[in-house]
Amino acid sequence: MLLLPLSLAAVCAIKIAAAEPDTALPSRESIEWCDIWISHANETKLPRVLLIGDSIVRDYYPEVEKRLAGKSFVARLATSRFVADPVLHKEIELVLEGTKFDVIVFNNGMHGWQHSEAKYREAFPKIIKTIQAHAPKAKLIWATTTPLRDGKGVTGHTKAEYSDERIAARNALAEEVVAARTIETVDLNAAVQGRPELHSDNVHFNGQGNQILAAQVCAAVAKLLPP
After folding, report:
1. CA angle, 98 as apex, 95 and 102 as ends, to 5°?
2. pTM exceeds 0.85
């Protein structure tokens, strides 16, 4: 698929009806969505940065773009897809096949709680492989998954329950994988850990929180941007 020139906003929301589990596919959430935004798509004078993540990335993206203005063009791929979902690979391929990026900051960890950490560990390296296959010259940065305001999620739903404990477990598994591949890490979790006043709800962050996250991302990206 050819990405259109000029500023591009491709926002897709896919509602998935409840169904019996399919052994060939990961269990879906009630709503799956994807938000792709590529600004200055027809310009070549600056390096390009891509942020891959979920709604948290989508929230701090404007601040990253603002802080890196004049230094790089910043795009985003925000999605609800769990790391083991083959659709996530297709979304990544769609963006990377249409645009060349110099630095890619990626995260996946706040969705797919119906899947075990063992499944997360099995699938996580495949995402790196997909990114590197379609952007072999890009420099990668892994962004840790951020903590919850209350430390735990919905009670009474053990299978899908999320918590800081599970987030820490996923971050540890991811860190093991990226360290073995000498991929840089920006620890967003540590930047906002223990600061509930930075949250707008149990998962997302307010303006101050997003500024802190964006500052961490920009500092990591600045070290890898080409002249």
Report:
1. 75
2. yes
| Calpha distance 58→73 (Å, rounded) | 15
- Give the chain's domain count: 1
| Dihedral of alpha carbons 76, 56, 158, 172, sign | positive
For strands 31-38 and 73-79, give the pairing.
antiparallel
Largest CA distance in the chain: 53
- Expressed as residue numbers, the domain containing 187 is 27-222
| Residue 55: its H or E element | helix 55-67
* CATH number of the domain where residue 158 is located: 3.40.50.1110
Q: With respect to residue 68, please indicate whether it lies within any of the assigned structural domains.
A: yes
- Residues 22-38: tens digit of each pLDDT: 345 778 899 999 999 99
Rounded (5°) CA angle 215-125-141: 20
- pLDDT over 90, % of the chain: 81
- How much is the pLDDT for 227? 82
